[in-house]
Design a protein that fits this description.
Elements: H1 7-12, E1 16-24, E2 30-34, E3 38-40, E4 43-49, H2 53-60, E5 63-70, E6 76-89, H3 94-104, E7 116-130
Antiparallel strand pairs: 1-2, 1-5, 3-4, 4-7, 5-6, 6-7
């Protein structure tokens, strides 16, 4: 079993909401996007459309990175490297609905996806980190802007 899915990192899995998905663009520049992440066994899942940048970029280069941050304690995170081993069609939006129910409590609202797919990700390396800070942000609105 992948170390990410066991121990402290695996226990944190149920609490995360803030996720970032990274891959490389055609010209090799890095790209990052917020995503919802699903999990079954040792595999991770990210929903997207085949024609999206995530879909196109991972067909060309299957290497990806994920940064998963605990929503309540942003000083707890899991950093993951992996590779997309399959781009699975999801015409019935089963994966979309499953993740949507987990994250927002209702089925995926956009039923007109053109080519919905699921990126099936095999974890190749994972690192759990917990910084010794308490999350007590000052009430500064949007990054202190007035």
């Amino acid at each position: 079993m992948c170390p990410f899915l066991s121990g402290r990192a695996g226990k944190k899995w149920a609490l995360v909401l803030a996720n970032k998905f990274g891959n490389s663009q055609k010209e090799t520049s890095p790209r990052s996007a917020p995503v919802w992440i699903g999990r079954k066994g040792d595999l991770l899942f990210v929903c997207t459309e085949a024609a999206s940048l995530k879909g196109k970029n991972t067909r060309r280069d299957p290497r990806v990175s994920l940064s998963i941050v605990d929503f309540v304690d942003p000083y707890t995170e899991v950093q993951i490297r992996g590779r997309v081993v399959e781009q699975r069609p999801d015409l019935q939006l089963k994966y979309y609905d499953s993740m949507s129910l987990r994250y927002i409590g209702k089925p995926w609202p956009y039923r007109d996806e053109k080519e919905p797919i699921v990126l099936v990700i095999e974890v190749t390396k994972a690192r759990y980190s917990k910084q010794p800070f308490e999350h007590t942000p000052p009430n500064m609105g949007l990054m202190g802007a007035k």
